[in-house]
Design brief:
Elements lengths: L23 E4 L9 E2 L2 E2 L7 H5 L6 H5 L11 H4 L5 E4 L12 H13 L4 E6 L2 H10 L8 E6 L3 H11 L5 E9 L6 H4 L4 E8 L11 H13 L3 E4 L3 E3 L3 E3 L20
Parallel strand pairs: 1-4, 4-5, 5-6, 6-7, 7-8, 8-9
Antiparallel strand pairs: 2-3, 10-11
Helix pairs in contact: 5-6
The structure holds iron/sulfur cluster and zinc ion (ZN).
Length: about 260
């Protein structure tokens, strides 16, 4: 029986009681692989693809080759994992990959229905294909699905938003690495968009690396619109999560899944 492994990706959630959510799982039915990767660089905005670096350590030859493929033997991992948690789905690939068989996406969505005691967080850079799959299969949104879109700057937002908004269900935005200002008005006008995670570009000398004022302003736009907003580098680990200036997490408005998502 194969269970979900712990996720070591640093998406931090606070539960309704203000304490960190402890059970984050990684679920990779798509293994490692993405047709958007070219020599270790993401084709979307020219940023380094960390997943392609990690893939070199994998046993599976297709994972090592970093091509889209499917690990059907992992489909029931959420079902065999009894402790409810938040499963980050396919963060080492892209569920919206145009090179991915539509049936495989659907089999993954079906598997979430057989294990609906978990919350599922998805993230894509390629919403066009995903929106098409959802339309073709007349996918009905589940309350425990959270669709994420990576957006780097305005041009990126303009290209991706029209397709992403057609995906049914709760949505959120990952603005990481943040490479330029974005007018978020269309996203904030959409009630299905619940929040944003903001992270600066940590590559030294990269576009937007030191533009902290812009990141704080971005965070403020989402907070003023009443949405969840989490600026990654504000947080530190000190036996528990604290703001980098030492204040208590409960005193600020971090990224968090709402209470109903953290049953
Ligand atoms: S979309 Fe994600 S997995 Fe694919 S190349 Fe870009 S960063 Fe890597
Ligand atoms: Zn593989």
């Amino acid at each position: 029986m194969s269970r979900l492994p712990d996720s070591h990706i640093g998406y931090i959630g606070l539960g309704a009681d203000g304490r960190p959510i402890e059970r984050y799982y990684g679920w990779n039915p798509f293994g490692f692989g993405c047709s958007n990767c070219h020599d270790g660089i993401c084709g979307t905005r020219g940023v380094k693809c960390w997943a392609s670096q990690l893939a070199k350590r994998m046993k599976c030859p297709q994972c090592r080759a970093f091509v889209p493929h499917f690990h059907a033997e992992r489909l029931e991992q959420p079902l065999h994992t009894k402790a409810p948690g938040i499963a980050l789905v396919g963060f080492q690939s892209d569920i919206g990959d145009e090179g991915r068989a539509m049936e495989d996406v659907f089999r993954v969505l079906e598997a979430t229905g057989r294990a609906d005691h978990h919350t599922y967080v998805f993230l894509t850079q390629q919403p066009e294909h995903l929106a098409w799959v959802c339309k073709e299969w007349t996918v009905t949104a589940m309350p425990n699905w959270w669709w994420g879109l990576t957006v780097h700057d305005q041009e990126d937002f303009d290209a991706k938003w029209p397709a992403f908004r057609r995906i049914p269900g709760h949505k959120w935005v990952s603005h990481e690495p943040a490479q330029g200002p974005v007018d978020w008005a269309p996203a904030l006008a959409d009630e299905s968009v619940t929040g944003i995670i903001i992270g600066h570009d940590r590559n030294r000398g990269a576009k937007g690396t030191e533009d902290w004022d812009r990141l704080y302003e971005c965070q403020g736009v989402w907070i003023r619109a009443g949405r969840m907003s989490y600026l990654k580098q504000q947080w530190a680990w000190d036996g528990r999560f604290v703001k980098a200036d030492g204040t208590d997490p409960a005193d600020c408005l971090p990224w968090s899944l709402p209470p109903e998502a953290t049953r």
